[in-house]
Amino acid sequence: MQIIETSAEEYGAVFTRYPHIYNGVPFSELNRRKTARLHYLIFRNPKVRFGLVLGEDNSGTLLSPFSAPFGGLTYNKTQSIEFIDDAIKVLKEYGRERNRRIRMTLPPFFYDDRHLPCVANALFREARLYKMDINYHFLISDFNGYETVIERNAKKNLRHAMEQDIAFTVADGNDCEDIKRAYDIIKRNREEHGYPLRMTCGEVIDTTHVIPADFFILSHGDNDIAAAQVFHVTDRIYQVIYWGDLREHASLRPMNLLAYRIFEHYHKQGLEILDIGPSTEESMPNYGLCSFKESIGCRSSLKLSFEI
User: Fold this and answer.
1) Is residue 87 a contact partner of residue 115, using CB atoms and an 8 Å limit?
2) Contacts of 286 (CB under 8 A, 6+ apart)
3) What does the alpha-carbon distance between residue 16 and residue 29 come to, in Å, rounded to a whole number?
4) pLDDT tens digits, residue range 48-75?
């Protein structure tokens, strides 16, 4: 197997589908300014087997992803473990020849439970596991018996929130003012809790031009009290990018209601999985976030990062 470095145009012509939206050319080109250089790689033997987009940082490290929750290999159809092994071996040689480290973060296995465990196995043998994050997701079919999958305290909080006069709004994801309204709540939430906010409002709006997105808002009287931003990452899996409430309204338990209404919304749409995202930073758990996500019925999985 050999690696051929190519252009964004050729890469986009070769790969007509992606395992998730973050591996696509439109998303990569949108974020090109965040990397010193983009590398579009095609793996052949002699047929095209895989693709990989790498962003080079200022230290020369090659990253997949360079500006997303995860990256990994792209493929037009399922490939054998033998081809996966060969691809990781030639990628290792590609980095060695250029004296470059390569870091790759895989999606959680529920994105592709046929392919991703094989990639992780190959990376484990040829690379170094340097990060293991706990990721949470909600299986939308669990909403059919939601009372049985949430914990006792979450039921109490949800009942309390439902007794309040709280409105749930599905915002217009094509309207900049609606997006800003949701973003401002999330920004305040991050500031109150000291959490990082890695996207500006302008970047969120720009990203909605290449990734379909949903925005949700809870309001109490004249006050917006909680919001969420969700990206359509695959046809069957959407991902919560940000969500949060405002501290002054926390006694209303808006996050329990927001989660319930979002789950209900996607249950009606027939979605399969809502990826809630990690509750770890550099593998270290945030116990409060883990407990909350578990209490509202989320399942845990691993998101693995390797260095070649």
Assistant:
1) no
2) 279, 280
3) 16
4) 999 999 999 999 999 999 999 999 999 9
Yes or no: say if 64 and 20 are a contact pair by the CB < 8 Å rule: no
Q: Which residue has the tokens 């009372």?
A: 147
Q: What is the pLDDT of residues 247-265, one digit of tens each?
A: 999 999 999 999 999 999 9
Task: Identify which of 135, 157, 134, 108 has the alpha carbon closest to the alpha carbon of residue 259.
Answer: 157
Contact 65, 55 (CB under 8 A): yes
* Among 136, 139, 151, CA closest to 280: 136
For the chain, give the DSSP string: -EEEEE-HHHHHHH-S--SSGGGSHHHHHHTGGGSSEEEEEEEESSSEEEEEEEEE-TTS-EEESSSSS----B-SS---HHHHHHHHHHHHHHHHHTT--EEEEPPPGGG-TTTHHHHHHHHHHHSEEEEEEEEEEEEGGGGGGHHHHS-HHHHHHHHHHHTS-EEEEE--TT-HHHHHHHHHHHHHHHHHHT----S-HHHHHHHTTTS-EEEEEEEETTEEEEEEEEEE-SSSEEEEEEEEE-GGGGGG-HHHHHHHHHHHHHHHHT--EEEEEE-EETTEE-HHHHHHHHHTTPEEEEEEEEE-
Q: Is 52 exposed, middle or buried (0-12, 13-18, 19+ CB in 10 A)?
A: buried
Angle between helices 254-269 and 152-162 (to 10 degrees): 90
**Closest of 187, 286, 297, 181 to residue 246, by C-alpha:** 187
Amino acid occupying residue 13: A
Residues 6+ apart with CB under 8 A from 251: none
